Amino acid sequence: MASHEIVDPTEQTGRTTRQRLVQIGVPLLSVALILATIGGIGLHTYRSTRAGVLGLTHDLLDSVQRYVVQDVTGYLSAATTGASFAQDFIGHARSASKDIAFYAYGGSMLRLVPQLQSFYLGDEKGGFILIERDPHGKGMEYTQLRPGADGADGVFHHDFYDEHGKLLRSEENPADHYDPRDRGWFKSAIGKDEISWSSPTLYETTKQLVITSSIGLTGTDGSKYVFAINTSLNLLSQFIDGLKIGKSGKAIILDSTGHIIAGHDFSRIVARAHGDPSQMLLDPKTQSTFLQVYDRFRVRGVGSHAFKSGGKNYIGIAENLPTTDGWVLLMVAPESDFAAFARTSGRESIQFSAIIVALAAILAGLLAHQSRKTDRANRELKRQKMQTASEADALQRLADTPDLFDGASEPLSLTEALARTSHARRVAIWRLLHDGTALICDDSYDSSLDAHSGGFELSRNELEEFFKLLDAGEAVNVAVASRDQKTAGFSRLMMREAGTTSLIVHPIRGTSHGASGVIGMMTLEDAVFAPHLVYFVDIVAALAAVRFGAAAETTAVTSESELLAPAPAGLSTPRFDEALVRPPVVAGQTTPGAFPSVAVMVITFSDPVMESGERPEALLKLIDQIATEVQNIARTHELFSVKVAGHRLICVAGCTAEPDPSAIRRLAEAALALRERCVMLLSAANIEPIFSIGMDFGPALGGELGQEPKTFNLWGETVTLAELMAQGAPDVGTIEVTERVYQALRDRYLFRSRGSFYAPGSGIGRVYVLATRR
């Protein structure tokens, strides 16, 4: 057990807990109490102030409401009171002088009251007279409907006067069968003593919206008349916009059906409705506050209402306008317009509170900092002691490791110790070949899986930038290896599958072939690396360098015979499928059944005729040479069987009842030899390499079938996977193997990892490329 894993059951933790409570809890509690007190006072002040402000705001708005209602009523009084006055004034005039009385009254009103646009007077017999402002000047226009002779259509007779009452000109134009009795303003008021209001209409002469108020009257001779007044809505809107409602309050007038009569931004409302009064309704997008007040008015009636819109507080008021046909005045004002002083007071209170809190926090922080300073120093000292103990324990484990400096053994203890001390996800030790063209992984330890692997090869041609980084001889720590140009290739080949991110590259220095320099490296992936661990990593690197030196002395020259374990005695003579070449000697018999350790190699050839373009007859010599080489290699490495199937050769070793550990090594040597001979033969024939090799190692079922001559056949997952490896080889001439072959040969041969593959019935597995012998 490591020293840092030892737990003292007598250790007292109660004192530490109480100490932390006093050092941290008391200052924090004091600050919390101060904050709670200030917050409570501030909240109470805010609520009290806001309640007072809201009450004051409602009172102010009520006063503003009465003021606005009076002003709007006064604005409309010219139409209401004037209509009542005209009812009496014109009604009591003699019939012969009614036109004179009408023109005199209308002219005076138009000169004195700017919001009035025109006056009508129609009788029950179809008579009609009109006085209005001259749209092209400052004078007046008098209009009279005159009937046509002998039943012909009537005409409008127009007299234009200047501002001093001088006649300027007269005009006539067809009346187009105009009859005042068909007009709404006439029908709604004939025979009535109360004022009627029409819907807004577009006045043609001025292109402004007007609203008509009309009242019925009876002449001295009993004739029925209707007197009407046109009031400008544009001027009414200008009047409403000029009202002072807080700082940014707005008002609008709606009729009984919710159509806009006048109000804020009236010109835009008219443009949006394209001059159609029936389309002048509240817009939910631009007039949402008015819409909320109007909805509350329809539910609750007149009065003031507080509401929220767009994150702001508003106060809205709805009030009916007297002497109108159900018109309602809506006013909206932000609550902040009337509560600016409250916001200022609140802001100042918050500032004072923040100053107090800051002072209290500084005092509490100084107290806590002073009390915690000693604790941090003690914790740092304790942590350093634990780290020292951990490193000492790791070094002790390494010292107790047998054959630590034996280069022939795997450096499992070195990678495990380094991963445990640095908390790395994965640690690997790499050996640089003497010519510096490749890196070979002696061992890679994955701490999350607690598994070792090795035998990987990295070529300088593939990772030129990474090798330059290693040649510099400096330790490198890269936070995201995939984003660094020098380590991106290593990340792609080695780190992507494991899902690691950071990379530490630590060179191993030593002497190789009489020259000193970098002879290898250590890689740490996702390590919690600290500066004080550098010396421990240096120690492990020195141990690895000693191992590399010992391995170089003991394995300077390794013959091919030393790589191979002796084959079991009594192996049968290799069998050859007659479809390829006739065997010189028929192989001996074997017992059919299940074989525990069969090594299978599948060689796939492309069509040599298609590849070379030569006549088939010219290739027979090349095929015969390849067949002869296969036979010789099979005899040399004591293979059990060689079978041809189309463009495939299937070579088998290890078909014995007892496991044959040498079978896979003999087959690997045969694969390397066969690859070399095939490349030479094809190159001599000026043909590109047209073959790939796949290998697997494991149990299989086989036996001889049929009568003499019997045919030996082999079944099982091992054969299937070997064929898949040959078909999936990345390049021609490549030997692709399964993970079972890699595990059996990685201590004697060099491999490159190719990633993962999926085989039906077998699932996902790892794939490797056999490169060469170590």
From TrEMBL:
**Entry-linked SMART domains:** CYCc (SM00044)
Q: Which residues form a coiled coil?
A: 367-398
Listed under GO cellular component are: guanylate cyclase complex, soluble; plasma membrane
Q: Which UniProt keywords apply?
A: Cell membrane, Coiled coil, Membrane, Transmembrane, Transmembrane helix
Q: Protein name, please?
A: Guanylate cyclase domain-containing protein
Organism of origin is Acetobacter nitrogenifigens DSM 23921 = NBRC 105050
Q: Which Pfam families match?
A: dCache_1, GAF, Guanylate_cyc
Where in this chain does the record put each Guanylate cyclase domain? 602-726
What does the record list as GO biological process? cGMP-mediated signaling; response to oxygen levels
Look up and give the membrane topology term: Multi-pass membrane protein
Please state where this protein is localized: Cell membrane
- The answer to whether keyword Transmembrane applies is yes
Query: InterPro entries from the entry?
Result: A/G_cyclase, dCache_1, GAF, Nucleotide_cyclase
Record-level Gene Ontology MF annotations: adenylate cyclase activity; guanylate cyclase activity
